[in-house]
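Z., the sequence and structure:
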Amino acid sequence: MTSATMWINVRLPGSNTPEVIEVESDTTAAECVHDIAEKLALPSLGADDISFVVSPTACANGAIVSSKSTFRQLMFNPRDDVLELWRSPRLMNCALVFKEGSTVVVRDKKMLPMDFGSPLLQMVANNQRAFSLPEDLEFTYQYSESAQDAHTAQMRPLHTQSSLSEQDVSCDGVLLCFPVSKLLSSPEGSFENPQIRGWLWKRSYKRDRVSTKQKRFFVLNGSFLYYYKKERDALASGVIPLEYYVANVKKVEKKFSFLLTKSFDGFRGMTTQYKLQAETRDLLDIWLELIKKQCVNSGNKKSVWSGS
């Protein structure tokens, strides 16, 4: 007796558009995962290295598919739900957190599948869908050992182009999604030990728009570069999440200048490039050295699964 067939939606992590693939409903995930990986042009891996995951949405937290389950047995809607191919999926608590002044507020928290074996940037699209975040809302990742620590300073930033396993993240901890726009409410004088603060000239490039040259007061605090119209301003004019940018002085015509160039396309409408200029060569060297240390992606390139 021939097994019935069904159509499923499958995509690689980080992709937005799934492919529709026909499978036999009584086939187990282990029996067809390698064939589907080849259809999606996934780099060659053993079947044991890839798992199916039901992608999370705003309405459902997703699930890790057992390799012994048949497609008929899966608790998902083949027409609406999407299966993804992950390297090392595990469940962990993920939280959407805002910073209000010096207080960290947890706005939403879910138990979600996360891929511990792939670069963290591949999880951005899934977290956007799970927390109903718009595609142009930039956020960064931080990690705390427990939910209680998420309300304090006991957090550490994560590198988006390294996997969670490479960064000693435990599935017993909490992954924090930190919207960058919520950091604009940080007063200029609220930082206890910033790496550096001072005046720089700024010009930004976004799509086809180029800003005028502006003098702004910059504060480097952790991996975030804040800028203000003047010292002691209560609100920042902008915040640059440095882990998504590469810093360099190549191809810069103006003296004492350097570029911050976007290295990640996961957020729609993200500023493509910033040109920053110091007053002297010594100041340029100091700013550039400190900023480069926070542009973690520039020296930490990993192979990723490309997505559309």
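Helices lie at 29-39, 124-130, 281-294. Residues 300-308 have pLDDT under 50 and may be disordered.

Let me know what you think.
H.
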